[in-house]
Amino acid sequence: MASDPSSPDTPPELRVRPVRFWHGRKLVELEGLPPAFTVLEWLREEAGCHAAKEGCAEGDCGACTVAVTDLDGAGNPRVRAINACIQPVAALDGKLLATAGDIGEPDALHPVQTAMVTHHGSQCGFCTPGIVMSLYAMYEGRRLADDAAVGREDAVRALSGNLCRCTGYRPILDAAQAMCGPDWQGETADAMRERLVRVAPGPQAWTPGEAAGGFDGHARGRFLAPRTLAQLAALRATHPDSRIVAGATDVGLWVTKHHRALGDVLWIGGVSGLAAIDRIGRDALASSRWGRELPCLEIGAAVTVEDAWRALAPHFAACIDYFDRFASVPVRNSATLVGNVANGSPIGDTAPLLIALGGSVVLHRQGQERILPLTDFYHGYQKNDLRPGEFIRAVRVPLLGADVSVHAWKLSKRVEQDISAVAVATALRVERGRIVAAGVGVGGMAAVSSRAVRTEQALLGLRVDVPAATLRDSAGMRAAWQAMHDEFDPLDDLRANAAYRRQAAANLLLRSCLQLARQAPATRLGELAAIQP
After folding, report:
1. Interior/surface letters 65-78, b for 16+ CB within 10 angstroms, e for the rest
2. Is residue 1 predicted with pLDDT exceeding 90?
3. Which of 22, 103, 255, 434 to pair with 175, CA 20 to 30 A apart?
4. Entry pTM
5. What is the CA radius of gyration of the chain?
6. Which pLDDT score, from 0 to 100, does residue 417 have?
7. DSSP 292
8. Rounded distance, CA 258 to CA 252, Å?
């Protein structure tokens, strides 16, 4: 009997069907796959395509980068770079896949490849295919928008997921800036759309079936793919031990690095109801915390970090640099904002900002929902408030208004593709030159990302409409600095020791406050002395 999508109590009928996608110009159908079998494994071991390489097997080096095309919310083709080494091949269902071996011919190179040759952008060549595909994704985006202007910063951003660049960076950046226009080369948007329609999944929950064998290194399990929220809720209830996966940017490493068996995977990337970003007129929890009516953006569990940041950037312009520090473009194209929250890592980059704003999570189980402040969701390291059969449907990000200054800072050993040693986010409301309300979230300072409540209290009443040096040396600023310094008991580890973390967190708080000072300085290292303990 077919499932009733309106009834969350009805287990959905799982249709066994192939994963269907295009590899280059070839239509591919795959059945009986282990749930963690990656795009890179399929390319190299099954398809005989060796253009994509395995370097780090964790989505850092960029050697495995490929381009995936799907349709955006408006029905327009979009081409994105992703890491093939950690992405399940079943997640390609309904998409177009391209590698460096699919975009040109030996006697007719693609413009990206030509630019790399012309500008001497390759040496040994191992990492070159991944670099080409990162640039190809940017090229395609520019081509479809008919925008040939690529600046150096555009190129740097596009290549953020390619840490391995044996030529040094300049020749590759030169190639990136020379590759676009005026004679575009590529498939029309209508042709892309037509091919995507041919492999578009239907409304029924599906699975490619369980692998019969022949996949060395992979444990048994099924890839379960619901298409509606009701199907997801029902599958979660009937498969309570299944692993919910969206972008696989974290779970993928469990397989490639820890060799863990995932069992059944419940993939939410194809659930249409989770792909939306909606504005809600009143966020009850945030309104209560901040003492006034506030709207929010509700971001669904299948929304990628890249799409979420694009939606948030107009509201939090001072955080754009922080957004760009989150992993890399290929990781952000796969990872989801909800996934980063659900992971619960104490060094995740999303949670400190959401905590500072008063963000919350929407938890769903069998048609019933409850909403929790993010601070109440985390109980301890890798422990949360999810009940059996429950999952995060969305996160809510409060929009605090123009009179609240929001900043977020991250310290790490590398600009791109690195884990935070310390992250601090602040939301400071100022009236008549004094802070009257404050939200402070921190990462890397405790077993979970946390709210700095004592620091928030210490900030209240701080006068900030004074020169920067005066603010830094004021008794109120020093008291708030000390409160942040003393509020947490961080660990010593390879990224930083506890003393560094305490002082860095306190100085990042100072940095946020200095943005409010009269003639605020550009608080870069060395431009204004930090407070010392």
Report:
1. bbbbbbbeeeeebb
2. no
3. 22
4. 0.93
5. 24
6. 82
7. S
8. 10
